[in-house]
Amino acid sequence: MVFGSTPRNNLSPQQLLGLANAYLESANRVDDGDIALVLCHDTESSLSQAKKGGKRNKEQSVLDGVATAYIGLGKVLDSRGRSSEAQASYEAAKKMGKSVQDFDRLAQSFDSKNNAHPPQGTMGSNSNVNTVNIPPVVAVTKRKVNRSIALIPPLIFAENVRPHTTFKKLPESDERLINTSQLACCLTLLKIAHSLDDTLEPIARDWLLTVENDPDEQERLKLLKTDIIRAYMRDELKDAKAVAEIVCLSPALDKAAFQDLLHLFYDRVAQSDLLNFHQLDGLANLLQGADPGFLEADDLIKILAFLSKRIQDTDKQSPRHIYQLILAASRVLDAMADTKFEGLNREKLHEPLSSYLNSMKKVSDPYLIYQVAYAYQALQCVPDDESLLQATLRRTGKVIKGVSGLVSAVKGLNLSGFIEGLSDIQKGLAGATEVVQLVVSVFDDVSSLTESGKGFLDCLKEGFSFKRKCAWYTALRGADALIREGEFVSFKKLVCEAPCRLDPAFQWGVCQRLAEIATNPIWDTRTRRNAITFLGEIYRNDEDWGHQASVKEWILNILIQLSSHSEIALQWKAGIQSPDDERFPLVGKLKEFLSSNQKVFLLSGDSGAGKSTFNRHLECDLWESFKKTSGTIPLHINLPAIDKPEQDMIAKQLRKDDFTESEIRELKLHRKFISIRDGYDENQQTHNLYVTNFPNQPGEWNTQMIISHRNENLGVDYRDRFRPGDRNSQSDSSLFQEAVITSFSQDQIQDY
Rounded to the nearest 5°, which phi and psi values hold at 3? Predict the structure, then answer.
């Protein structure tokens, strides 16, 4: 039997109101929580349209019914544990003149027959719907919410996605490629051609079927890959953009090319006297996404030995140095667990590293503490005869060797059994023989908790435990395997049902992974937005996720990093000594500077405050303005990647961007620049770059300068290093402006 389709837009306001009540009735009756939330969403959509129609037609009875139904929707959402959404429904009703008390009185006026059955005419019959002035009230059934499972809107991660294969446009034969991400997508599609499945987008499937019959195009793409790798190897100074591009390409490499790239990253990090953050980050990301079959035990040992030594030598340096090194070491340890590595030398590697991690108990930086705890959990898995994940999987009846087995068998994984296995570890039932007692106790010193900020570290004492293997690490490794394969439906189920989901360490790890999904170009726009929405759910829904202040702060930090994808405006204050309550939107301050005659703008802030992200976002905005006006040219300069930036800095950056000498001379003589200079302190820079580069003088570059710097490295007389001056170094404070990026106030956090 085939029924005709009636678009919702064709329904009258009365019909839309009846439809909303039908959805609401069903949402209240159905047992499946996910289905109920979909029905609630449909209810809200129908009510919104009915409200618009009622206002347009001035039908007060419809508007009264909509207001009442909004309260009914709130009641149903409340019964499903969705208090924040319920409150929004109550507020909508309140704006229309209805209160919860009005609803309760109305509910009492209906007998049980009205409450037990859907009303006549609400599914499409016009005869009865038009006579309904006030819709039947839904009797909300009280039910006990299953607090062991978090409820996430079903539209978040509703389907799986093939990684590295999502791109809006794929090239025709011999067509110029847009960027390295598009090339990586093409090469990955060719690599998986033998295993086509339903998760592949139609555009990718069609492209693949065409290119499979075009050997010349396949060869062209492979040559492009080779050329990019060779160019990267020749480039001595690699900025963050170049590192990100080559890491994006790594999943499409064969084993030999991957190992060459791994050795290059290692050599550049190991041979540098100063810690190269971009190369170290590239090394960590390369290991994170590596095929376990591409990794050799000797390479992993060599990299871990170097990192372990560098970590211990860096003890007196900034938390950022230590964090980046421990993050990279965690990736190596994860890779060792993935490949079921055994026999890590206890005396030379295991004990020194575990002792160092033990010594970190007095650290006050929560981000560093999380990474230390994660590294320790990874370290416990490396020397075992049977990995922690394998012990979990043993309960499912599917013995899979190592974490790498989960990657290859993820589609056949009994996820419910896996989650049940996590419960055993959570309860300490995995077996005493599996607990490696490397450290007697770490967070047993109450005074250190007080010194580090008791409110947060009290949570860490429970969650970031060093005493035993924890379920949260195993759960996160399972999540990694699911993400790697694009199994987002199972990933959501694991996160929502893991028995350790209220553990702050687990939540930190989940948020970290959601942030990586949101910023990774291998995923399509919908998937990346789902990741951001998921972060919002964890932030807002205290009933399901607990009121973890540290996790909320972590999420806000992530949102700052994602500010180029959102409408969150960074805040500033006038200087380091200015009161924290004197905050203003940063974008407005920059616009004021750019329209003035001032020459230098110093942008400072704590590590991770969002300076580099803001600079990139600013560059994009300025380029959009340039396209419309052909005025001032924005030029982003990564200072650590420039050799001797105190001399001829703009020309050096343009040469890196492949401009010819004649083009550079032309730009110098005839164009005005806004030079955005990022990372002043990352290469121990001490020169006044304005004074040493002689800008805004006859025959020199015409430019305004924006310079970013970390607060902790500024010093007392820092302004002398940035104020404009002439060749005799006479500074002019009227040409200088500064701002400090600040964290959000409590009121702003609450408003958000």
Answer: -105, 145
Give the up-direction half-sphere exposure of residue 346: CA atoms within 13 A in the CB hemisphere: 5
**Does the residue 579 lie in any domain?**
yes
The residue among 129, 157, 184 that closes a domain is 129
d(CA 386, CA 744): 45
Let me know if residue 354 belongs to a domain.
no
Say how many C-beta atoms besides its own lie within 10 A of residue 197's C-beta. 10
Following CA atoms 485, 487, 492, 495 in sequence, which dihedral angle do they give, to the nearest 10 degrees? -40
Query: CA dist 416 to 147, 209, 472, 489, 614, Å?
Result: 17, 37, 16, 13, 42
CB atoms within 10 A of CB 316: 7
Tokens of 387: 């990995």
Nearest to 210 by CA among 221, 222, 218: 218
Strand partners, 638: 678
Q: Which long-range contacts (CB under 8 A, 24 or more apart) does 473-476 make?
A: 473/374, 473/377, 473/378, 473/381, 473/388, 473/505, 474/388, 474/389, 474/392, 474/422, 474/425, 475/422, 475/500, 475/506, 476/374, 476/506, 476/509, 476/510, 476/513
Pairing status of strand 672-678 against strand 633-638: parallel
pLDDT tens digits, 511-562? 989 988 887 777 877 888 888 888 888 887 878 888 777 787 778 777 766 6
User: Per the domain annotation, does 724 fall within a domain?
Assistant: yes
β-strand pairing of 571-573 with 736-742: antiparallel
699-737 burial string, b = 16+ CB within 10 Å, else e?
A: eebebbbbbbbbbeebeeebbebbbbbeeeeebeeebbb
Q: Distance between CA 517 and CA 637 in Å, rounded?
A: 27
pLDDT single digits (tens) 707-734:
888 776 666 677 878 888 754 555 566 7
For residue 601, the SS3 value is strand
CB 330 within 8 A of CB 375: yes
List the CATH number of the domain containing 622: 3.40.50
Q: How many CA atoms lie less than 13 Å away from 402 in the CB half-sphere?
A: 18
DSSP assignment of 54-69 equals HHHHT-HHHHHHHHHH
Tell me which of 129, 155, 187 is where a domain ends: 129
Q: How far is residue 384 from each of residues 388, 430, 465, 693, 748, measured CA to CA in Å? A: 8, 14, 19, 58, 47
| Euclidean distance between CA atoms 622 and 605, whole angstroms | 22
Q: Within a 10 A sphere around the Cβ of 668, how many other Cβ atoms?
A: 17
Domain tally for the chain? 2
Nearest to 208 by CA among 224, 221, 192: 192
- Rounded to whole angstroms, the Cα distance separating 157 from 164 reads 17
Which of 130, 11, 121 lies closest to 59 in space, CA to CA?
Answer: 130
Q: What is the pLDDT of residue 264?
A: 84
Q: Do 71 and 103 contact (CB within 8 A), yes or no?
A: yes
- Domain extent for 743: 571-751
Contacts of 276 (CB under 8 A, 6+ apart): 268, 269, 640
* pTM for the full predicted model: 0.50
- When the pLDDT of each residue in the chain is averaged and rounded to a whole number, the result is 71
Per the listing, tokens 């509703």 go with 158
Q: Which one is predicted more confidently, 344 or 148?
A: 344
Could you tell me if residue 534 is inside a domain? no
Q: If DSSP codes are grouped into helix, strand and coil, which group holds residue 503?
A: coil
Sheet holding 702-710, edge to edge: 584-585, 571-573, 736-742, 600-605, 702-710, 672-678, 633-638
Q: DSSP 3-state assignment of 706?
A: strand
Phi first, then psi, for residue 702 (nearest 5°) are -95, 105
The answer to whether the CB of 599 falls within 8 A of the CB of 672 is: no
What do you get for the CA distance between the two ends of the chain, in Å? 49
Residues 6+ apart with CB under 8 A from 434: 384, 386, 388, 391, 469
